[in-house]
Amino acid sequence: MALGKWEHSTGPPGKRLPGCGWHRDEKKLDIAPRGDDENGDNVMILHVDMDAFYASVEERDQPTLRGQPVIVGGSAEKRGVVAAANYVVRSFGVHSAMPTSTALKLCPHAVLMPVRMSHYAEISRSLHEIFFRYTPLVEPLALDEAFLDVSGSGRLFGSPEKMAREVKKAIHDELGLVASVGVAPNKFLAKLASDLEKPDGLVVIARENVQEVLDPLPVGRIWGVGKATGKTFERLGIHTIGELRECSPGDLESRFGKMGDQIWSLAHGIDTRPVIPDREAKSISNETTFATDIEDMEILESWLMELTEQVSRRLRRSGMRARTVQIKVRYDDFDTFTRSISLSDPTTSTQEIWRSAATMLKERLPERPLCIRLLGVGVSNLQQQGSVQGELFDDPDQESRLDEVTDEIEDRFGRGAVNRASSTMRTTNRKPEPGSENFGNPDG
């Protein structure tokens, strides 16, 4: 386990960057990271991210796999994709979202394991039970990662770093798995910290060291800076977050629109989003950013089903129903589109959410070449399940009832114990089930 230590590295003060036309003046900036209280002074957040989750579970369950290149995903013959890759096989260039056929060409001796989603979901529930020992403020991003607001837990459990160490130890001792944890004053910094020393990392970003950590990092570490935005910064001679901070908010907004304001805030370590548990959320969503852009609609539909399945399971666990379904699609040039559909009645049905999301994916996107960097599914306009009033003499929502029964049976007996003939995800042509990154990635 590594505890990150960082050296301060910045350029000369007052540096003028091409295209920015603005001298940095620290006295003019409010750069104190803020959380969900007025000043953010007491907020500390953990981001827990399981390392290569699906593949690590398979290695744990079959110790003979340890040390071997392991891929979790669908068969190459059925145009399957990689859902997760352990760190051994990654050294061959294999990564999640890659077609399995390509992965096996890069590493012909890799061991290919099928996705066991219900098994991973059961382990995820045990993982979240560990989280809830320390705080009720847990925001799941996917099966394998979550934010924990531990701001009010210090009197019981000690410092945030101590809690992070205990969470890591409990995951290792009770589940036989390894997690990386980031500790920081806000969500952006905590998620960044969890990724800096993977695998088995523990990085604490103290409030007074935020810029010391951020400034040497490449601009691509900022949420929202993709290939296209990154190329723009390269043309401006901006390579690090420290250099990016020389730009004014107005200049960034003029170049990147509303995204420019977010980029400026994150470069200064500012992120005001609170940790929102599912039960308090106004919406529930999952999204994933692909390591390489996806151009195949069938592969996108397989990811869409996985995201839908995770969102619908979270929706049912939260005791809510949703009336609105939305998708989020980001192209390779960083153009981002959201689409939504309002349902006639609120639902928890995986199939109903899937049908709406798939329709929007196939029929409501701009007419342009398909080259997708990010895909997300969400539901909103939530209502308590008990508040939904059915028509007199109507049968209960059969699809939702089937979801509940299927969840119970598959939790006990594993995936495939129940097959729904009408479900795309349970036919012989079903694509493998990749993971997600919130809007999470089991390939962490």
Written overview of the protein:
The protein is an alpha+beta fold and 444 residues long. Among the domains are: 15-41 and 209-274, 5' to 3' exonuclease, C-terminal subdomain (DNA polymerase, domain 1); 278-426, Dna Ligase, domain 1 (2-Layer Sandwich), CATH 3.30.1490. It is 34% helix and 20% strand. It has 15 helices and 13 strands. The chain has helices spanning 53-61, 87-90, 100-106, 117-132, 154-157, 160-175, 187-196, 210-214, 227-235, 241-244, 249-256, 258-267, 297-317, 350-363, 398-413; strands at 2-3, 45-50, 70-73, 82-85, 111-113, 138-142, 145-149, 179-184, 201-204, 283-294, 320-331, 336-347, 372-384. The strands form 3 sheets. Strands 1-9-8-2-7-6 form a 6-stranded mixed sheet. The protein has a 4-stranded antiparallel sheet with strand order 10-13-11-12, with helices on one face. Strand 8, helix 7 and strand 9 (201-204) form a beta-alpha-beta unit. Helix 4 (117-132) runs antiparallel to helix 6, helix 11 crosses helix 12 and helix 13 (297-317) packs antiparallel against helix 14. The longest helix is centred in the C-terminal third of the chain and has 21 residues, at 297-317. Mean pLDDT is 80; it is low at 1-19, 21-39, 387-396 and 413-441.
